[in-house]
Amino acid sequence: MDRDNMSGPKTVAELAEQLRSFTEDRDWQQFHTPKNLAMALAGEVGELLAELQWLTPQEAAHAMDDPELGGRVRAEIGDVMIYLTRLADVLGIDLVRAAEDKLVDVARRYPADQVRGSAAKALGS
Hints:
This protein has one domain: Helix Hairpins, CATH 1.10.287. Helix content is 66%, strand content 0%. It has six helices and no strands. It has helices at 12-25, 34-52, 57-61, 67-91, 95-109, 112-115. The longest helix is centred in the middle third of the chain and has 25 residues, at 67-91. The N and C termini lie far apart (40 Å).
């Protein structure tokens, strides 16, 4: 996508529309099945993981301080966001609503006063 010819989306819904148009302009919707998009998403998450894989926790926390590494991490996160947004759009899922619903569920399963400072998995999860 040519940055000079695009005004950046301000919401996830606007990004979804921008990606939908990008896809339609190239007649790629035939390839954007939920399975294919989920597989592409997994691949991009793998590429993001590869950028951080051998870093110490301290190095990973400061990845964005290194212009070269930071640029690669940012690009991979961009790829992840694109595929996740496209997958949700194809499936008719509102990403923000899905995240909000999940946060409500997690808050119920992990009450702050009972789990503060613990990484233990909730029973029945």
